[in-house]
Design goal:
By secondary structure, this protein is an alpha/beta fold. The chain has two domains: about 160 residues, Peroxisomal Thiolase, Chain A, domain 1, CATH 3.40.47.10; about 140 residues, 3-Layer(aba) Sandwich (Peroxisomal Thiolase, Chain A, domain 1). About 30% of the residues lie in helices and about 25% in strands. It contains nine helices and 13 strands. A five-stranded mixed sheet has the order 1-7-6-4-5, sandwiched between helices. A four-stranded mixed sheet has the order 8-13-12-11, sandwiched between helices. Strands 2-3 form a two-stranded antiparallel sheet. α3 packs across α4 and α6 runs parallel beside α7. It is globular, with a radius of gyration of 18 Å. The two termini are about 25 Å apart. The structure holds oxa(dethia)-CoA (UT7). The site of oxa(dethia)-CoA has 20 residues, from α2 and α6.
Length: about 325
């Protein structure tokens, strides 16, 4: 990835929001309908329960509204809406429906990069701001329960629904983004995929093996682009697919898992929503302060991987 050309305007996150469906499905409930157990799911994935229900538009409107409120922005002031999702409600127009329901008067489009969608959207949003937009609403939402085969114990315990949103605003100077990386390897498409109208098919072990490698590779590229070391990172905000993947990636990067934001135990894998949900959780718990360096990193179907290093609040040292 090329080094960042810092223009007149950078971006910072000025508000965030989350939405999870009300319905909780516990591991015990799954074990009542398929040949699995709470112990197996917990020990192999870290998931204890997940939220299921709602629509991509409905959850996006909820998280997006919260983010706008926190940023103190009237919807009319947003210059662009980017909706990261791999489960649009319709073939097209999901982001337009969100734009309409939120009362935005701006361009709106979907980004589909499976579980790395939010990261692709985040880089895109920074690009829009570098090109002159002043305020961008970025939402990551997935309703994976709609494309999950609820009779398949290899996938059903993993996937769930949720949404996370951030408002990005332009600032003078370099802003928060210090380095970024977007990767894809289409030769690995077959190990994790869903045909249009179908359900998720996955070679779990192979996805696991590659996931750790591509997350670490991507993270190392972003750290290098940012000119920082892993020890400089206050908090890792990883894609929430499996606690063992997060642990292995942290081990290989040389950072304690205590410095990672983890929400998978209560959310499951919410794809495009997983990184913004983990980011919002860390912010709401006061784990991030002005000036802290964050490493956001994810992987997903495609296969894709993506990461970035942010200085929270932007600015130089
Ligand atoms: O956003 C990206 C999405 N996907 C991922 O990140 C998935 C990455 N992969 C994984 O997270 C893990 O590979 C899984 C959680 C999917 C599976 O864990 P694993 O440790 O790789 O287990 P495994 O596939 O090797 O299966 C071990 C055993 C097998 O039985 P045998 O052959 O040893 O008798 C499976 O049949 O566990 C069995 N098994 C289950 N048992 C109880 C598989 N799924 C289940 C289940 N409950 N739900």
């Amino acid at each position: 990835m090329p080094a960042i050309r810092h223009g007149a305007k950078g971006a910072v996150i000025s508000g965030w929001g989350t939405a999870l469906p009300e319905k909780v499905v516990t591991n015990e409930e799954l074990a009542a309908t398929m040949d699995t157990s709470d112990e197996w799911i917990r020990s192999r994935t870290g998931i204890e329960e997940r939220r299921v229900g709602g629509s991509t538009v409905g959850l996006s409107v909820e998280s997006g509204r919260q983010a706008l409120e926190m940023a103190g922005l009237d919807p009319s002031r947003i210059d662009a809406l980017v909706l990261a999702t791999t489960t649009p409600d319709k073939q097209w127009g999901t982001s337009a429906a969100v734009q309409n329901e939120l009362g935005l008067f701006c361009g709106a489009f979907d980004v589909n990069a499976a579980c790395t969608g939010f990261m692709y959207g985040l880089v895109t949003a920074h690009g829009l701001i570098a090109m002159g937009a002043d305020r961008v609403l970025l939402i990551g939402t997935d309703t994976l329960s709609r494309i999950t085969d609820w009779n398949d114990r290899a996938t059903a315990p993993l996937f769930a629904d949720g949404s996370g949103a951030v408002v990005l605003e332009s600032v003078d100077g370099p802003g928060q983004m210090l380095g970024w990386d977007l990767d894809a390897d289409g030769s690995a498409l077959s190990i994790l995929q869903s045909e249009v109208g179908g359900t998720i098919k996955m070679e779990g072990k192979e996805v696991f093996r590659r996931a750790v490698r591509i997350m670490v590779d991507s993270a190392e590229k972003s750290l290098a682009h940012a000119g920082v070391q892993i020890d400089d990172i206050k908090l890792v905000v990883p894609h929430q697919a499996n606690i063992r993947i997060i642990r292995a990636a942290c081990d290989r990067l040389g950072i304690s898992i205590d410095r990672a934001s983890v929400v998978i135990q209560r959310t499951g894998n919410t794809s495009s929503a997983s990184i913004p949900l983990a980011l919002a959780d860390a912010l709401d718990r006061g784990r991030i302060e002005h000036g802290d360096l964050l490493l956001l990193v994810g992987f997903g179907g495609g296969m894709t991987a993506a990461s970035c290093v942010l200085r929270w609040g932007g600015g130089l040292e």
